[in-house]
């Protein structure tokens, strides 16, 4: 087995195998029709004037919009081309994930066969796990996968640059780190956390906890800090979060669909200003946003940020404690997946939120306080593993600790106290899930090793007794 992972052709052969398996897994998705935000995004007026590239790139998530414009210029609204590009992005991301994981295990001091084995199984789970379906087959969520790809590329370039002795090559790769951050954010704003992940990675695996060595890489950190400040001032601060240019039409479309199921007496009882609230309340059930919350906003339709008054920051935070726990269970047991979850909003910290009739969830939704304690225990375990001895037998645990924090940091823009109109959606797990898969593979390997060791020792003991 060790010789199999040590073979010089293992990595290229594995990457080819993973690509073929991933394409086979999604081979039935190329004719999947547009859903929800797809029609609003792909019918955006900017896409119809591909010659006006400046307007496309100046729009929200400009690089993602540019790729949609390319698709539209080549094949119009034929969904095949959009799905093909989405799948290609996912395959490339899986290759980047393997490359980054392999470099990480090597830096942590794990021997080469084990480094390849852990990286391969983790990347393969990332490639074919069912939870990635939404990010790959939901056309508009190319934004998520594109952003993740540049995110992975940026970290990988940083690792390669830090290990390079050639000044010119190092400078070019550091420039690539910043450029990848720019493209990641221009694909989707969830890439905002990249500088924090790079700094943590540097401290854990490159600088060995020595801040002086971290400071020796000041040029790239200055570039990242400048971009981080620019994104904060121009995008994050004004919005208070993340927004979509077509999200308002999505909400209105949902309201129109819900209106078809409303009794006539309800339609006749509401005035025009409250019609949207009434239809959504009927559709969402017993846990619907309160109409008085909606009245606080000056601009209805914001999809994220403090302008969203569907839910308060405190209530959104409570809800996200439950949502993140649900994400973890969904990664462990991918059942009852849904493109549009009826996940309950939590109004109180110590009280379980009521679940709308007909909602299908894998686990009972607990009080947010219970979920908070679970997440605190997981994050605390990650920190403990991270600060154990850096070499020798504990190297794997250190990698596991880093990727526990990877999961929480990358998920934080959409799972904190900044309200987002959707409480829970699977595509947010796309890149954070890599952290779960690494921890899962390492834990499974440790359990398997102990079981095998126990069986071997038991056999030896029985032979000695004989």
Structural overview:
By secondary structure, this protein is mostly helical. Among the domains are: 2-241, no CATH class; 247-294, no CATH class. The chain is built from 21 helices and no strands. The protein is globular and about 80 Å long. Residues 241-301 have low confidence and may be disordered.
| Rg value | 24 Å
Percentage of residues in strands: under 5%
**Number of H- or I-type helical stretches:** 21
Arithmetic mean pLDDT: 82
Distance between the termini: 31 Å
The SS-based structural class is mainly alpha
**Count of extended strands:** 0
* SSE string: HHHHHHHHHHHHHHHHHHHHH
Which shape, going by the Cα principal axes?
A: globular
Report helical residue fraction: 55-70%
Biggest β-sheet strands, sense, barrel: none
The poorly predicted ranges are 241-301
Comma- or semicolon-separated keywords:
single chain, 466 residues, mainly alpha, 21 helices, 0% strand, globular
Give the helix/strand layout.
Elements: H1 2-6, H2 10-25, H3 37-42, H4 53-58, H5 62-75, H6 79-108, H7 112-128, H8 133-137, H9 142-162, H10 167-187, H11 194-206, H12 211-215, H13 218-239, H14 247-259, H15 264-269, H16 275-284, H17 291-294, H18 313-332, H19 368-386, H20 395-411, H21 433-465
């Amino acid at each position: 087995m060790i010789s199999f992972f040590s073979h010089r052709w293992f990595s290229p052969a594995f990457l080819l195998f993973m690509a073929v398996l991933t394409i086979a897994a999604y081979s039935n998705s190329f004719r999947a029709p547009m859903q929800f935000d797809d029609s609003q995004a792909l019918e955006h007026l900017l896409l119809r004037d591909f010659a006006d590239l400046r307007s496309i790139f100046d729009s929200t998530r400009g690089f993602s919009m540019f790729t949609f414009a390319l698709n539209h210029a080549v094949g119009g609204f034929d969904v095949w081309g959009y799905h093909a590009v989405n799948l290609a992005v996912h395959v490339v991301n899986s290759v980047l994930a393997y490359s980054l994981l392999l470099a990480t295990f090597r830096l942590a001091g794990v021997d080469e066969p084990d480094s390849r084995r852990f990286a391969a199984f983790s990347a393969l789970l990332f490639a074919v796990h069912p939870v990635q379906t939404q990010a790959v087959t939901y056309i508009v969520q190319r934004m998520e996968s594109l952003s993740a790809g540049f995110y992975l590329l940026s970290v990988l370039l940083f690792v390669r640059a830090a290990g390079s002795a050639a000044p010119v090559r190092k400078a070019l790769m550091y420039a690539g780190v910043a450029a990848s951050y720019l493209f990641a954010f221009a694909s989707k704003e969830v890439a905002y956390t990249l500088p924090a992940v790079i700094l943590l990675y540097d401290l854990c695996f490159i600088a060995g906890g020595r801040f002086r060595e971290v400071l020796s890489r000041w040029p790239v950190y200055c570039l990242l800090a400048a971009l981080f400040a620019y994104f904060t001032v121009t995008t994050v601060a004004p919005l208070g979060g993340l927004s979509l240019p077509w999200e308002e039409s999505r909400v209105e479309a949902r309201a129109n669909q819900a209106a078809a199921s409303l009794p006539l007496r309800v339609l006749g009882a509401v005035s025009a200003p409250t019609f949207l609230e009434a239809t959504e309340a009927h559709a969402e059930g017993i846990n619907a946003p309160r109409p008085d919350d909606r009245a606080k906003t000056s601009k209805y339709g914001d999809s994220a940020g403090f302008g969203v008054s569907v839910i308060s920051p405190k209530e959104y935070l409570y809800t996200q404690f439950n949502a993140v726990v649900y994400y973890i269970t969904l990664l462990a047991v991918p059942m009852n997946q849904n493109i549009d979850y009826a996940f309950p909003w939590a109004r109180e910290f110590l009280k379980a939120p009521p679940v709308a009739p007909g909602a299908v969830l894998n686990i009972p939704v607990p009080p947010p306080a219970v979920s908070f304690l679970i997440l605190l225990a997981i994050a605390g375990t990650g920190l403990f593993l991270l600060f154990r001895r850096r070499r020798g037998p504990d190297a794997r645990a250190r990698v596991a600790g880093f990727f526990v924090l990877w999961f929480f940091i990358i998920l934080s823009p959409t799972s904190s106290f900044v309200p987002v109109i959707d409480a829970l959606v699977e595509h947010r797990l796309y890149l954070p899930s890599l952290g779960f898969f690494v921890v899962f593979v390492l834990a499974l390997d440790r359990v398997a090793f102990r079981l095998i060791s126990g069986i071997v020792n038991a056999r030896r003991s029985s032979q000695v007794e004989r």
